[in-house]
Design a protein that fits this description.
The chain is an alpha/beta fold. It folds into three domains: 2-144, no CATH class; 156-205; 225-363, no CATH class. It contains 13 helices and five strands. Helix 11 packs antiparallel against helix 12 (305-323). The longest helix is centred in the C-terminal third of the chain and has 33 residues, at 263-295.
Length: 371
């Protein structure tokens, strides 16, 4: 059996004619169409109902299969409620059809918005076809309006399209205003262009998700009282200080003459001047991480290896870089025995910390073993 289903999403038929819906049967649909035409001749749903009647007559004349026509309506102003109301009315229509055959539908609509109910119809019966009926003078007007409305309602699409467009539209008036205040228009134009370029690059690389996730982690860390937030800030400060100290030592070993230091000497000077600060940053951040793990009941004894490893690596790098420093005034270069002592101490510190915490964890596990 074929059911010609006319869709009135905003319930113009029910609101304007006081006719109870759903409307089932060709005579009832024709009466409803005439009643709506009498009240509001410009309503586009008239086209839908008359097209439904035309399709109904054509199918009856061409096919031996049983055919019925019906009008189902939603509600005004709320698409979700309207879709659910149409689903209920379709169920009422199907329940009233006294047939043992499978029912399939031909859907008649007046635009893209009404076609949003197609998934609801398809969940109840197969759809053999969809016919969109609009006035010829405005063939694509409603579809364009609905598409623009949907685009502007989507926050992500709205930000992607409207923000760059807004920046472009602001360029000329901002340049004019800048000229009125004796500000170089080229400078302002370059600034706006840079903002637009940064925004486009930001959206193109998809960095908004990473930044949002980072902001969420920071906010959750503040609320949860995580020690890593403080220790990371302190570690960053120590890294900056270490970089400055490393550059300062590089300048110290740079001769005043025409000769320039080798890459090995420059690297050794930078590492030697900064490694203790970098080590302090590593110890600070690792202690903050260990504290958070302990507070979250995820502590393991082997986590305490981290600060000892940092110290061990720092000792090795400090001794190795000091060995390659030039022997000039203000710098005490390491001798070969000094390098041997640094390498030995660093190695022993790393190995002994690993063995110590492994033994402690085996005898005093931080958390009970699962049964």
């Amino acid at each position: 059996m074929l059911l010609v289903l006319c869709i009135d999403l905003d319930d113009d038929v029910g609101r304007k004619t006081d006719i109870d819906t759903p409307v089932v049967g060709s005579d009832a649909v024709r009466e409803a169409a005439i009643a709506l035409a009498t009240v509001d001749p410009e309503d586009s749903d008239l086209n839908v109902m008359f097209q439904g009647l035309s399709t109904y007559d054509s199918l009856q004349a061409e096919d031996d299969e049983a055919v019925e026509v019906a009008v189902v309506t939603g509600v005004e102003g709320n698409d979700v409620t309207a879709n659910r109301t149409i689903g209920d009315e379709i169920d009422t229509v199907l329940a009233g059809l006294q047939t043992g055959e499978e029912v399939s539908a031909i859907v008649i609509t007046d635009g893209a918005q009404d076609e949003s109910v197609i998934p609801i119809i398809r969940s109840r019966m197969p759809i053999d076809g969809v016919q969109r009926v609009v006035v010829r003078q405005a063939q694509n007007l409603e579809s364009m309006y609905y598409t623009i409305k949907q685009v502007l309602a989507d926050p992500e699409t709205r930000g992607t399209i409207l923000v760059p467009l807004g920046i472009l539209l602001l360029i000329y008036p901002m340049v004019v205003i800048a000229g009125a205040f004796d500000v170089a228009g080229a400078v302002l134009l370059g600034l706006l262009s840079a903002l637009l370029g940064l925004y486009t690059l930001f959206r193109g690389l998809g960095l908004e998700d990473s930044i949002d996730a980072t902001a969420d982690r920071i906010r959750n860390g503040l609320y949860a009282g995580r020690a890593t937030l403080i220790t990371y800030v302190v570690a960053l400060a120590l890294v900056i200080v270490g970089g400055v100290q490393g550059v300062s030592l590089v300048e110290t070993v740079t001769p005043t003459g025409s000769d320039t230091p080798t890459i090995v000497t420059t690297a050794a000077a930078f590492v030697h001047g900064s490694v203790q600060w970098f080590a302090a940053a590593g110890i600070t951040s690792s202690l903050g991480q260990v504290t958070d793990e302990y507070l979250a009941d995820r502590f393991r004894w082997r986590y305490l290896n981290a600060p000892f490893y940092v110290v061990a690596i720092a000792i090795v790098l400090y001794g190795l870089s000091g060995f390659f420093l030039p022997d000039i005034a203000g710098i005490a270069a390491f001798t070969l025995p000094d390098l041997a002592i640094a390498l030995t101490v660093g190695t022993l510190l790393g190995v002994l910390s690993t063995l110590t915490f492994a033994v402690v964890e085996s005898r005093y596990p931080a958390t009970p073993e699962p049964a």
